[in-house]
User: Fold this.
Amino acid sequence: MTQTPVNNRYRSAVDLSGIWHICFDPQADGVSRNWHRGIDRRQAFAIAVPGSWNEQLAEAGYMNYCGVAWYETRFYVPETGADRVLSLHFGSADFSAEIWVNGQPAGRSKAAMLPFEIALEGLVQPGEIAVLVVRVDATLDSEGPTQGITRAIYEAEKRPRDEYLPAVRFDFFPFGGLNRPVFLTSRPGMRIRDHVVVSSMRTVSVTIDAHDGTEVVVRLSDGSECVEQRAALIDGKASLTLSPQCPELWSPDSPFLHDLEISLLDAKGVTVDQISQRIGLREFRVEGRQLLLNGQPIRLKGFGKHEESPLHGRGLNLPQLIKDFHLLKWIGANSVRTSHYPYSEAFLELADAFGILVVDEVFSINLDFRLVNEATLANHKDAVSQLIARDRNRTCVVAWSLANEPGYLAEAEYREKSPPYWKELFAHARALDPTRPMTHANVGYAGNDDPAFAESDIIGMNRYHGWYSEPAQLDRATARLRADFDAVAMHGKPIVLFEFGADAMAGQHASHDQMFTEEYQMRFIEAYWREIVAHPALAGGHVWNFADFRTAQHGRRVVHNLKGVFTRTREPKMAAWALRTLWGMA
Ligand code: BDP
Assistant:
C-alpha cells in the first residue's frame, strides 16, 4: 500500500522534482553497459521531472520514441535517527520501471499511471549523496489491461505494425517518462500503515491499520466544531465512527471539506505518528434509474478529459490543472471521468476542493478478447486493486469505471469470453469497495447488450452517430441515439452517456452542417444534450472531450484529436459557450 507523501512533525517528504538526466536505450541493453550504476554522461540529456520526454526532447529526435530510457539523479540521505523508515515514492513511471539505488537493485513497478514505493533500507547511508537510477519502459505489456501491440497479431491480420506513429491501439499519445513527482519520504517505524474513510451525510467512519502502537485518536473538525474518538488497537487495527452535531454536507454547489486527523499513540500515551486529510460528508448512490447525491437526484454534466499538455506531455502541470478546474466551474460542469487512466493525486485533491464528481477509470482500453488470457485478468484485477487503494478515501470519487470500450473490434470472442471475465472483475472491485457503484464505457460495436452491462450499476455508453457514421446528419444521428437509449434502458439502470462529440478546428466556420467546423460541433453537442435531457433513463452526459489533445500520427487526426470544446491551450470554441448556456451558467 502506498501512502500519499506527508510533511508534519512525524513524517517528511522531500520533493526530488527538478532537472534530472536521461539516456535513451533503444536496444534495451543498458544493464550490460552498467547504466544501473550511473548513466553515460556523454550521451545524456537534461530532462525535467515530472515531465514526459517526448515533447521536451523532440528536437533531439525523441518525439515519437516509446521504448526504454534511463533516468538519473542524486539525493542527500538525511540523518534520520534510529527506527525511521526511508522510502522513495514515485507518483508514476509510464508505463513500467526498474529502480537501482547506489547501483543496487531496489525494486520495480508495472503499475502504469499509479504510484509505487521503494524501500531504501540497506541501500543508503545517512549523510551520503545517493545515486538513483530509474529504467523507464514506455512499451505496453501485451498482457496488461491495456494490451500493447504485438507483432504476432499484426502479422496475422496482415497489418503494418507501424500504421500509427508511435504504434498504439488507442487515441491519445503514449507519453513516456516520470510523469509525476518523486519524493524521498521518512516515516516513523511505529506508524499508521493504512486507513480507510467512508463518509455518509451524518458520519465519518475510519478504519486504521497500524504497525505497532497502542491507541488511535481521530479528530474531525469543520473549523468550529471538533469531534474526537479514541480506540485501542487490536492486532494493529481499530475502527471508529464520528458523528458531528451539525454536519455541513459536500456537493458541487458547496464543496465543504472537514479536516480529519489520525494520531497513533504508544503505550505511554505519546503521539508517535499522525496523518491528516480533508473529507466531505456526502452520500452518492443509485436508486432505480436515478443517481442520488445527498438524497437528491443529480444529472451528471461534464467531460471526458485527458491528463496532458503542450511541453509537459503527461507530466503534472499544476497551473493548467488549476485553470481546468476554473473552466469546469465556468462552464457549469459537475463531473469528470478520468478517461482513460488514473489521474494524478493533485487532480483528485482539486476535484475534492472544487466539488467535481469523479468517475475514476482504470487504465484498460479496447480490450481485444481474442488475446485475453488469465494473465490479462490477473493484471486487470491488480490495476483495479491499486486504483481503489490509492483513491478510495477521496470524497470526489463517486464511481469506478473498470474499462473503456472493450470489444471494440466487435470480435466474436467478446460475446463468448467476456461474461465470466466481467463477473470476476466486477466482483473483485466490489469486494474492495462495496460503497461505490461500478461502471464501464461501452462502445457501439460491443452492442446494446454488452455483457458487461449485466455487472454494472451504472450503464456507461460512448456514441458518435453524426460523426463516425451519419456524418453531418444530425436528424439521422439523433434517431439512432434514441434507439440506443431505448434498447439499453431495458436494463432498468441509470445510463450515463460517457462520450459524445465532434472534432472542430478552432476558427473553422460554415453556415451549413459541415464537419470540423465550430458550428457543427456546437449543434452536435446541443442535439445530443436535448436527447439526454428528454430520455427518462438518462442520468447524465459527458462531452468528449474537455480539450483538444495530442494523438499518435495517422491519417484520421490533424495533429490533435480536435473534439475539445477548449483548444489544447484552453481557449473556448463556440461549443464551450453553448454548453455554458445549456448547463445553466448564462
Ligand atoms: C472513443 C474513445 C476515445 C477516442 C474517441 C474519438 O473512447 O478515446 O478519443 O472515441 O474517436 O472511441 O474521438
